[in-house]
Structure formats: C-alpha cells, structure tokens
Amino acid sequence: MTTTSAQSTLKTLTDRLLANESSWGERRQAVHDIAELFASLGIYDIHTNEREIGAAVNLSGGYAISSWGAAMCLLEVKRTYIFIKGIIAAIQSLQRNQPNKPLHILDAGCGPFALLSVLPALYVEKGTATFHLLDVIPENIAAVKKLITALQLDDFFGDLYIADAIHFKWPKAVPLNMVISETMLNALRKEPQVAITLNLAPQLAPGGLFIPENIRVDLYAVNNKLNQQQDRTPYEQFYTTLFQLNKYTQFEDGITKQLAKVKIPEEFDCTQNRFMYYTFIKVFENVVLEYNDSSLNIPCPAIKESQQIGLVGKELFFYYEVTEYPGIRWRL
Ligand SMILES: C[S@@+](CC[C@H](N)C(=O)[O-])C[C@H]1O[C@@H](n2cnc3c(N)ncnc32)[C@H](O)[C@@H]1O
Predict the structure, then answer these.
(1) pLDDT-derived band of residue 211, with 50, 70 and 90 as boundaries?
(2) Which of 246, 205, 25, 33 is nearest to 119 (CA)?
(3) What is the distance in A from the centroid of ligand 1 to the CA of 167?
(4) Euclidean distance between CA atoms 149 and 168, whole angstroms
C-alpha cells in the first residue's frame, strides 16, 4: 500500500467510526480495520507483537501500562469513538475562539499509535494545529514516529518526547493550547491521570483546554439485582459526588482535602446492597462516556463486602491520594 493511500484508507475508516449513522458493529469493524492497517504498515501488530516489548512501568503517580495494553485501547469501540469525536470538537472550538495559529496540542501518554492525535489530525487543516507527542515508554515514541511518516502526516506533528508526564515541563516558548491525556482506569485507580492533570493543566495557556474536560466519580449504593434489570433506577441509589478532576482541581501534598463525608444509614441492608464508584467522563462539552460505556466507566466496589457490615450507622471520610498506587480511599 502506498503511503498516500494509507492516509486515505485511514480517513475512510475514521469517517466510518465517527459517522452518526454507524452502528456499534460498523464502529467495531472500523477500529479492527484501523489496527490491521497499522499492522500492514509495520507499526505495531496487536496480534503478533511481543508483549514484553514496552513493558509497563511504575511511576510516582501511578503506573504506565505496557505498549501492548496501550495499543489494545484502540479496540475499545465506544471509548475510542467518543474520545476522537470530543477531541475534534474541542480543536474546532479552540480554532473558533483563538485566532492565533497554529494551536499547540500535547498528547500526554500517546501510546504506540498516538491515536488521540493521529485520527483528529485527519480533520485539521494544515498549518492550524501542531500535535506534540509524549510517552514514558521509548518503544511507543519509536512506533509513532514510524506511523506518522508512513501516513505522511509529518506536517501536523511537532516534537516527540520520551518523558514522564507527571513531571514534564512544557519547554517551548509558544503557548500550550490543549493537553490530551487518557491515562486512567475506572474510579481513577492505579493509573496516573490525576497526577498528570495536576502537573500539566496549570501549564495551559489562558483559555486552554484539558481533555477530558471533567472526570467525576460518584458514590452509589447498588442492589444485587441491578445487573439483571433493564431499568436500573430502582436498584441504585446516588449518595454523593466524591471527586471531580478538571483543569481547576488542586491538591495539597498529594492528598485532596476531605472529599466527602458519608453516613451509612442504620437501615442500610448490607446483604442486598453494595457501595460502588461510578465514573463519568466528559471528554468535551456534550461528548461523554457514562455508565458501562467503556471499561473506564464500569462501576467498581468502593468497600469490601465483608467490611460493609461493621460500618452501618457510621460516618466515612473519602479522599483521593496520589501515590504510586493512586485512588480514592476512605477512613472512619
Ligand atoms: C491507556 S494508554 C492510552 C494510549 C492512547 N492515548 C489512547 O488513548 O489510545 C496510556 C498511555 O499513557 C502512557 N503513560 C502513562 N503514564 C504516563 C506518564 N506518567 N508519562 C508519560 N506517558 C505515560 C502509557 O505508556 C500509555 O502509552
């Protein structure tokens, strides 16, 4: 396949992924075809690449997943669809509001395909935006370098950094207009999304955008029957919003000030109900990922089942802690 046709094939597949009328099956086929296209260009073949290459690394604010894990993110149909759709909308919004060109966009944790930059670049007019790529795993940066050249997209890309986004300082004199980072698991566990946001958001130029715009974690009590029912409403009870992550979020000493205080009612039935964290991701404006839309939104247990019984009638304090193993914690 010639490089020009590789770029136009990728555009056709991305159009199919993004089209409003596409079914889930068509979107699924599109992301698989994109993976095949990248493999045919000799970039990163998710079926045959050795998984040991580009191993996961532990960092001060959470762990960076392996190259293979990051490549596989492409196949999470709705995650990929919604992120690409939201990023294109965010770029268009900045282009409308900020006459200075080109926009400078940093993709922090780009993975081996720099998916969140390469696909949006296909919808950007040449000279209006420059994507800079950063990943802590050297093999990912080597792979994206090859991919950009193979797709003849060099004009849309600036610098490539092998660096830790938790400590990275924007080195350029030009303003940083947008940061994109998808370095998270549901309930903001284990991966460094929070630490990366806390470092990079303050480096944005005025009016700059951090994508996702907001990540919210709520506490729900969930009845055991929830997953067997079409209508969830009678089986889940909202308690409180525990945490919101966006460009304004501030921490002290790696720990948020008290996030939320929750009293577990005396009548709470521990045999029927479980406390869970629900994660909502606003990629940009009304482009969102919600309950079970992707692995990032699967509810996860907040308190061990065996512990719940001893907590009835007590008050719990929830807080977020940035460590090598970050996450929401609670104490009495
Ligand atoms: C979940 S993958 C997402 C890949 C790609 N952005 C996408 O959405 O398809 C996260 C990526 O972030 C990188 N990463 C995680 N923590 C990082 C850090 N602190 N600094 C730089 N890169 C990091 C990992 O190496 C991995 O490539």
Answers:
(1) very high
(2) 33
(3) 14
(4) 25
Domain extent listing, the chain = 3-214, 215-331
Point out the least confidently predicted range of 22-36, 84-98, 188-202, 253-267: 253-267
Give the mean model confidence (pLDDT) for residues 117-143. Answer: 96
Predicted pLDDT of residue 2:
56
At a CB cut-off of 8 Å and minimum separation 6, what does 300 contact?
A: 186, 187, 189, 276, 277
Q: Which CATH number fits domain 3-214: 3.30.70.890, 3.30.70.940, 3.40.50.150, 3.30.920.30?
A: 3.40.50.150
Which of the listed residues 38, 63, 65 should we mutate to test ligand 1's pocket, taking the one with most ligand atoms within 8 A of CB? 65
pLDDT of 180 above 90: yes
Question: Using CA atoms, how far apart are residues 111 and 56, in angstroms rounded to an integer?
Answer: 12
pTM of the model: 0.96
pLDDT at site 14: 98
Query: Residue with structure tokens 């200075």?
Result: 100
Q: Residues enclosing ligand 1, CB less than 6 A? A: 59, 64-65, 70, 73-74, 109-111, 115-116, 134-137, 140, 164-166, 182-183, 192, 196
Residue 330 CA to ligand 1 center (angstroms) comes to 27
Residue 4 has pLDDT above 70, yes or no: no
Helices 3-18, 138-150: inter-axial angle, 10-degree rounding: 100
**Cα gap 1→4, rounded to integer Å:** 8
Distance 194 CA to ligand 1 centre (A): 13
pLDDT of residue 175: 95
Mutate to test the pocket of ligand 1, among 110, 131, 160, 191 (most ligand atoms within 8 A of CB): 110
CA-atom Rg of the chain in angstroms: 21
